[in-house]
Amino acid sequence: MPTKAKLPNTQKFDYQEVLRDVARSMVRLKRPDRLLKLITRFIDQQFGLAHASLLVFDPKKGHYVFVHSKGTKRLPMGLVKFDSDHPLVQWFSGSKKKLPFQKDFLFLSDVKKMLSRAEFRMASNSKGDQLAGIQKTMQNLKVELLVPGYFKDALVGLLMLGRRVNGRCFTTQEVTFFQTLAHDCSMAVKTAEYNQNLVEQNQELAKRLEEIERMRNKEQRTYYEIMRSLAEEVHAKEPYIFSHVSEVERLGMMTAREMGMDLSGKTKDLLSAALILHDVGKIGIPDNILCKPGQLTQEEWRVMKTHVEKGARILEPLTDFKKVREIIMSHHERFDGSGYPRGLKGDEISIEARIISVVDSFHAIVSSRCYREGRSIDSAIHEVRNCAGTQFDPVVVDAFLRALRTELQKKGEIPSALAEHAAD
Ligand SMILES: [Fe+2]
To answer: Which CATH number is correct for 2-199, 3.40.50.300, 3.60.15.10, 3.90.180.10, 3.30.450.40?
Structure first.
């Protein structure tokens, strides 16, 4: 700040150097308050004034207030405020008028001179009233010189300077210097205001985005819950396999864990949702086909197969579950490419869909239906194993059987088919 150019009051100092210092400080300081304080103090010290004060417009309060005052006769902060209709504010805010004195600064002596002129002394003269108001204010506040600061023609603030203690008058060069400082102060105030608005706007934007995200998550969650209920509803039509959804989920997660898949965060949620929702499309299949005890006709079978696309369509609004839709679309594909609806094979089928294929089939075999009894675990294990490499991915089958063996071993119920598997 202007400290480098500080010299005794009686000596001349380098105005340009001081202004360069101010400019540098403006770049460095994010908050203008400190800069305004330094400028006020600097003027007071360098020019030996009764006081140097700064009045700045506060956009939140809607009026001008003193932000700083230095000197032996400093003005009390917070007590004085000027509204936009105050004569002082009006004088510097109004458009340029044909007055004998320019509006870029105003000496008390000039106000007195103007008021002594007949044209301003008339009782009905509004300009005279305005000047009288200005004179009164300047005298009350012991102000000798007023220097306004503008930003884009709007009055940002006023530099109010008291009389010099040594009685000397201000020179033209000094007034020009004050004008430049007032301009710099206005720039600093406006830049800070702009930055503050930007910060507030960003905070507001972040808050709104957060709210939108929160609402979106809530909406997605609600939709997911509805889908889950629908998925359970599908199997609730067949009371014997009411627990199918949760069992398929449990077996699928167990297999994925056995395969060493990353089951943290979103990956786990996706697999879990796919395991639960894979047959949600069956809600669109007529009951006479879905619950038919006997063999389906060719036409009924064609309708039954559409549950894959129906399920994917139902999940369309769940934008977070795009991958789940793809898994659902593939859960009836077969490892050898003979499945539906697209005839994908091997790695073309997502690993999650290959897992669903195994655990869903296994659980369907061991579950009792209204038209048949569930088969034994041994029988289901043989069937799953026999279909490894054709219907199922052999790696998934292997992992599933390993995991199943570990689980049943804990219960002391290892079926013979798995004892065989362990021996392999
Ligand atoms: Fe299915």
So the answer is: 3.30.450.40
